[in-house]
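User: I'm preparing a small set of examples for a lab meeting where we compare how different chains pack in three dimensions. I only have the primary sequence for this one, and I'd like the structure in token form so I can line it up with the others. Please keep the answer compact; I'll paste it straight into my notes.
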Amino acid sequence: MQQTNHSSQPLLGVDGVTLQYATRQQIVTATHRVSFDMYENDRFVLLGPSGCGKSTLLKSIGGFLTPVEGEIRLNGQRITRPGPDRMIVFQEFDQLLPWQTVLQNVVFPMRSTGRFAASEREDRARVAIEKVGLSKFVDAYPHTLSGGMKQRVAIARALAMEPAVLLMDEPFAALDALTRLRMQQELLDLWAEIRFSMIFVTHSIEEAILLANRIVVMTPHPGQVIAELDATRFSYNHTGSDEFLAFYKQINSMLFGQQEVANG
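Assistant: Understood. Below is the structure token output for the 264-residue chain.
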């Protein structure tokens, strides 16, 4: 496994994590003994085919699902429950409260968790909204916003909480291609400005290379780690470069080969 060397302690440690969930018919093993370390300010991408347990793993990092084997630690402390130090941005556009304005939506998690003094929450919300370019829409309601704008609000709401790690579960997957590309670029610009720590789930190789400084490649169900790759040199490069295409093909062959094994 190719890894990047770090001298600092991990922000997040995933150690031998096996996750299961129940359906009406059976117990499903989503991941099998997954291990990796994430460091502060990482743009860390979990990449794999649909059904490989990426989103389930993100839920466990969020504290919503307890591993049946292994453990997940944040700043050295085992994760046992949800907390404001881990905020999740989902794929669905309906994650905003429809009866609240953009400003009220961004303030809501701070108010409901008691995070920050009441007198400073609105100011923090306005700063976050400005960073995602929606200052003119603070009084707008979600139904008046486009899909990309709704995702900007969701990102602002999460970042206003100043979480230790921002968890993003395929947040751009439901957007049209041009909006998705613009949101990817805006997320990179936002990261360059405020340097937050992020775990981003996707099954798009191109999106993973564009957004990540580190990529974990996972097998089909049940998800296991097959490679950890350094993608730093591609973060701001144009996707048409020869080096980018070669890296794309390398990852594609990993995923394609694993799928062939699974299907064979």
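A couple of notes for your slides: The two ends are 24 Å apart (CA to CA). Residues 211 and 231 are 9 Å apart (CA to CA).

User: Perfect, thanks.
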